[in-house]
Amino acid sequence: MPSSAFNIEHQSEQSRFIININDDAAVLEYQLLDNNILDFTRTYVPFRHRGQGHAEALVHAGLAWANNQGFTLQASCWYVDKFLKSDS
């Protein structure tokens, strides 16, 4: 599902992207490391909202932003790592 299907908010002060889902939130967290390296550290989608494309939309939005910023990317999060490996 395209990221445009969700209202994704970049909260740069908290180093994360979120989608608010009623009283819940799906989250993609990252950490800026030395030498302009951005590490995507965690994705989380509340159990009852899984399988609806939230995590994938967050990853696409996060990767697009990071690439626009010129960061070197890595992922300690296994889910984001799948996307990085598929792009190489």
CATH topology: Aminopeptidase
What's the shape?
Answer: globular
Oligomer: single chain
Percent range of helical residues: 25-40%
Largest beta sheet: what is the strand line-up? Answer: 1-2-3-4-5
CATH architect. name: 3-Layer(aba) Sandwich
Name of the level-1 CATH class: Alpha Beta
Report the count of strand segments: 5
Order of helices and strands: EEEEHEH
Low-confidence stretches: none
Strand content: 35-45%
CATH superfamily annotation? Gcn5-related N-acetyltransferase (GNAT)
Average pLDDT figure:
93
- Number of separate structural domains: 1
Largest sheet: 5 strands, mixed
Radius of gyration: 12 Å
Q: Give the class from helix and strand content and strand pairing.
A: alpha+beta
Distance between the termini: 21 Å
Which keywords apply here?
Aminopeptidase, 88 residues, globular, alpha+beta
What can you see in these coordinates?
With 88 residues, this protein is an alpha+beta fold. The protein has one domain (3-87): Aminopeptidase (3-Layer(aba) Sandwich). 30% of the residues lie in helices and 36% in strands. It has two helices and five strands. It has helices at residues 54-69, 78-87; strands at residues 8-11, 16-21, 24-33, 37-44, 72-75. A five-stranded mixed β-sheet has the order 1-2-3-4-5.
